[in-house]
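User: Assemble these into one structure.

Assistant: Restating your components, then the assembled model:
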Amino acid sequence: MQASRSLAQTFAALGDPTRMAILSRLAAQGELTVQEIAAPFAMSLPAVSQHLKVLEHAGLIARGRDGQKRPCRLNVEQFAAAAGWFDHTRAAWEARFDRLERFLATTETKGDGHGR
Amino acid sequence: MQASRSLAQTFAALGDPTRMAILSRLAAQGELTVQEIAAPFAMSLPAVSQHLKVLEHAGLIARGRDGQKRPCRLNVEQFAAAAGWFDHTRAAWEARFDRLERFLATTETKGDGHGR
């Protein structure tokens, strides 16, 4: 439950298009300063900082200690944990679907002698 | 932007452990009634219905028209879209990492003649 609470917090942090965009850029470009992150957005630095705090609190980014800059990078572990929830849930869905297909195949084979 | 706004809404809907648990069960078990969904939770039916409304509004579940029951099932398309965002972001991260590795390998090769 603790794990899913933490993952829920991670998903909640992703529930905003600006934060999704920030995370996509960090994934593609690596470490970026707050100024670099803010550049493409029509948004004040404090507003961007607030988004970064939410992402950091949710474990999705980590911040360096390079003086005043505090560059941000993707926290791969938490990102992978969130992605893993999707993989896991998708696998459960596919397993159910496979069982259903096998069941229908059995029914069809049995039905051949009767229905046609 | 519209697409990422809709995905952001999907992630926001997942930002709750109860809604994550409901979605996991629907993935594993297929169609369930509100009563069946509510059974494992110490929660009133109206509270569960509220969670289902959030999931439905975010496109993560669809509801049938079987009289009063309105059974729920996972909406695979939207689930796949959200999972796809993770796949896409992970791919961007891995591509950057590969570039970095290739760059370091080049530097190392070049460095052999000088540093050692």
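The domain at 2-114 of chain A is CATH 1.10.10.10 (Arc Repressor Mutant, subunit A).
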